[in-house]
Amino acid sequence: MTPTGLPDSLIATLPGSYYTDPGIFAQEQERIFEAMWFCAARSSELGRPGAFRTVGVGRESILVTRSRDHAVRAFHNVCRHRGARLLTEEGGEVRRAFQCPYHAWTYDLDGRLVAAPNLTKMPDVGRTEYGLVPVHVREWLGYVWVCLAEDPPSFEEQVVGAVVTRLGDVASLERYGIEDLRVGRRIVYDVRANWKLIVENFMECYHCATIHPELTEVLPEFADGYAAQYYVGHGAEFGADVEGFTVDGSPGLERIPGVSAAQDRRYYAITIRPQVFVNLVPDHVIFHRMYPVAADRTVVECDWLYLEEVVAGGRDLSRSVELFDRVNRQDFEACERCQPAMGSRIYAKGGVLVPSEHHIAGFHDWVHERLGTAQPR
Ligand code: FES
Ligand code: FE
Q: Which residues 6+ apart lie within 8 Å of 335 measured at CB?
């Protein structure tokens, strides 16, 4: 027996409070989302200088934009004068500067304070010193990643390393040319569940046979409930009579040219902690980002990425998108079914992980490690 009273073969989950307690959520925001690299936006949303997007990262609002030299920049979305939220829109485009609506302090695309009423009479207000406060930014796979930490962790270790762990090398991912693919469809899901329920669900396929009838038709090995997605680095193979990764197994779109023969007719799933899931299939890539907003609410933005000519050619993507849209809805409904019971006294000590879910324990260990808490084993 373990200290939690479970037989040695079983492992306890996190206690229910980890999914409901605003105090624990605040710690996660500070020690996970504000401390690690966080995938904020698709680079193509910032196609031109002045295009911007605002994103909640932990407890902060971050403004991501493209400057005149075409580099991506990210700043705290807070006016340096009296702290007004500079931009309240989720996205848009300015011509050359961001102007605070309160007293009209104006910042250029590099964040410098360039104008303010009567600025010349205020020599002590330095234009750089009182510029927008930058955060670290990187572009990879056609996405903009930000890090709010003063001294960020290694991007190579945290982000690229997660891909290497799943696929064996980064070249296997690069064959999909994700940065050159185009968003064919974006769906935003407002999920009434804690972000960790979504991660845990994505990491196991014990539920696949129960809730994913369309997916298990296309990927028969998922039907036995044992093929944890975490371990499908080898890539789950399409069923013999399946023609494409579509809701009815009908043919998909043009195959991405770099995809190797070994990757063809296979599905790969990658988790990049803390908030990205990537699915790779021969003709498209499905890229999920989670934006945790409360202990019991997570917005998930999901992009379906195809070859440029497929999207530009106006091809019918509906059967292709519908497969994983259904999978997402089935998964999020399951997470929403769990969320209300996390607060039950029955779940105060949590539940159990069966052997096919045992890698979720690794995720829980990681959460404990980040938060500086420890679970008895
Ligand atoms: Fe922004 Fe005053 S708070 S200009
Ligand atoms: Fe699922």
A: 191, 193, 194, 197, 198, 201
Model pLDDT, residue 332:
98
CA-wise closest residue to 198 among 327, 305, 90 = 327
Q: Is 176 exposed, middle or buried (0-12, 13-18, 19+ CB in 10 A)?
A: buried
Cα distance between residue 77 and residue 63, in whole Å: 5
CB of residue 103 inside a 6 A radius of ligand 1: yes
- Over residues 96-141, the pLDDT tens digits come to 999 999 999 999 999 999 999 987 787 777 777 899 999 999 999 9
Contact 152, 37 (CB under 8 A): yes
For atom 4 of ligand 1, which residue has the closest CA?
A: 103
CATH code 2.102.10.10 for 37-147: yes
Q: Tell which phi-psi region holds residue 70, choosing left (phi > 0), alpha (psi between -120 and 50) or beta.
A: left
- Check: CB of residue 97 under 8 Å from CB of residue 114: yes
Q: Where are the domains of the chain?
A: 37-147, 160-371
Q: Enumerate residues with CB within 5 Å of ligand 2 (an ion).
A: 331
pLDDT > 70: what percent of the chain?
Answer: 95
Query: Going by CA atoms, what residue is nearest to atom 2 of ligand 1?
Result: 103
Which residue reads 């980040």 in tokens?
370
The chain-wide mean pLDDT, for the chain, equals: 93
Q: State pLDDT tens for residues 202-260.
A: 988 889 999 999 999 999 988 876 655 545 456 899 999 999 999 999 999 999 999 99
Q: What's the pTM?
A: 0.94
Q: Which residue has the tokens 């968003």?
A: 183
Instruction: Tell me the HSE value of 25 on the side-chain side, using a 13 A CA sphere.
Output: 22
* Backbone phi, psi, residue 166, to 5°: -80, -40
Number of H helices, E strands in the chain: 10, 18
pLDDT at 56: 97
Could you identify the atom of ligand 1 that is nearest to the CA of residue 105? 4
The fourth-level CATH superfamily of domain 160-371 is: Naphthalene 1,2-dioxygenase Alpha Subunit; Chain A, domain 1 (3.90.380.10)
